[in-house]
Predict the 3D structure of the following.
Amino acid sequence: MSAAPDRAPAPTTPGATPAGGEPLVVVRDLVKHFPLTRGIVIRRRIGAVRAVDGVSFSVNRGETLGIVGETGCGKSTTARLIMRLLEATGGEVRFDGRDITHLKGHELKAVRREMQMIFQDPYSSLNPRKTIGSIIGEPFVIHGLEQGKGERKRAVQELMETVGLNPEHYNRYPHEFSGGQRQRIGVARALALKPKLLIADEPVSALDVSIQAQVLNLLRDLQRQLGLTVVFIAHDLSVVRHMCDRVAVMYLGKIVEIGPSDPLYEFPRHPYTGALLAAVPVADPTRHGVQRRLLSGDVPSPANPPSACRFHTRCPKAQPLCSTEEPLLVEKGSGTEAACHFPLTREEVAAIGVRSPA
Amino acid sequence: MSAEEPLLRVEDLRVEFPTEDGLVHAVDGITYQVHRGRTLGIVGESGSGKTVGSLTTLGLTRGQGARISGRVLFEGRDLLTLSEDEMRKVRGNDISMVFQDPLSSLHPLYSVGAQLTEAVLAHRDVSKATARARAVELLGLVGIPDPARRVSDYPHEFSGGMRQRAMIAMALANEPKLLIADEPTTALDVTVQAQILALMERLQRELGMAIVIITHDLGVVAEMADDIAVMYAGRIVETASAELVFSSPEHPYTWGLLRSIPRLGRSREESLVPIPGTPPSLINPPSGCHFHPRCPYAQPDHARIDPALEPVPGEPSHHVACLLEAGVRRALWAELRAGRMPEQALAAAGLPVEPA
């Protein structure tokens, strides 16, 4: 069982796999439904929030995959499913060639050593009553590694050095550190067990602008030095472009477009990707007043998503077909795969106000 | 800038809060003006004093034991000298404010309509029915579909974007001359943010009000603002038209902000240039230039001399508080703009490479 070889990813999504390279994570038809209930004594199920509804992709070793999308699109749920912090309703997650979707007990614990997570809020993700030495060293204790206090302290101080913290601050408490430094502590803790996979869920969105760059540079340097595989989740499209080799765009629990960063940002094919890119404010006042086409309305409820293509209710290009037949995620001839019957053309991309890089 | 009397003129405003740990110098002598129908963007990080400054303008820091000095002239009248009763007539009428978090700024137990009606009745002597009709009209104005029905909804029945629209509707209830928007889109998704910014621009065109938009997001100010003031540690360090701030910024902190954000148009290979260190304590701000501990170009005497906000030679509308010479600043920015790192820029500009 544990020696199961890598299989090719699901046939419905041939190119959600990067060209070449060996996948570390393969996610296939992943589904997570959260039940909605009514009643206090007799709880009846009245439906489900379809947070993640059939997502397939893979992440190569040493690669950074970005997942973008708006609140409620399922990007964090996807990350938690990969980490096995949530139980999947359906589908499978393969890690390092092995199906980990239903692992339990010490098998699960062993897999978790190899994947670590960095959280959004550096204030609530560190125990305020522990010194940072013991916070960063805790993974060693949990997994019964690096016996002996002296050895552990050395290992922790080395990690602190790696992430740009002063090793002399070993005995300080989280409140003595600024937001950016706390995020470094979170990174050090995540790296302690030399994981193969790092999942960063909005790692800089709680930080000040001048601090964000410090943490982004740190993550990029570490990724290169240690050859980490990273899943980087963010709502900020500029940050994702800066950090990621490939990007997946999610809308209402589904991937609507996935592909290498450059073609995805320069020539988005799915109208939702186009709308997201057009909405990013650009730090260039000479563009002041350039007309952009904006999405109207709000994201529909994931408890009752629109039929077929979920974006058809807000899509400027929607046709009757879009509400009856679900588009598959397929290669559109420009480097990315999009789930759309009527992908954007170059003229339309220019017209909606997507800024192609200079 | 036009020669006419500005709508709002803030002069040497200082706000200090006594705390157990010492006196917090939240706003440390800021001066700026806002002209009718124009938009000023105030940019800064958390703790730069941008929010406290605006709350003080509206008299909202009075009850907190704050020590306030300076002048806040609105149409020539100093708001700091007004009584609480007089201030209440200004607030929500001539000047109104939109806050970051629309969920906590709306009362959860009253319908959106009731809250809008209250805003109208607070300043106008009209019947309840008229006020209610005005509430419906306002919701329509900010683009809420089917306003006559949605007016009876409670805040939890609105989405985040709709709540912020409702907040803007409330702020506009009495057609203010000045709207202060404090991080109005920070809690919103990017597509909703674009909608809200477009809405504010449209309303400004239609109603002719002036806007002060407070944000940490350079993209948002670039889209919205005519003029920009950059704040750091309670002070304005640079102010100019938006074009000038982005094309020829003068302050090292502004350079730092511009070089430290990833942009869609830039190559991925280009490294971000972070601003080293962390924002300073406002209880014990650094001596001299407040930015000197984090400034890669600081010289030894910058820790002693306090720079004043002065016009840039040849650019009377562009003000900067920096001790570097104008020529040196231009040379440095030219290097940074070409993608050089701060150390390389220092050498090229002829400054000692190992500064203070």
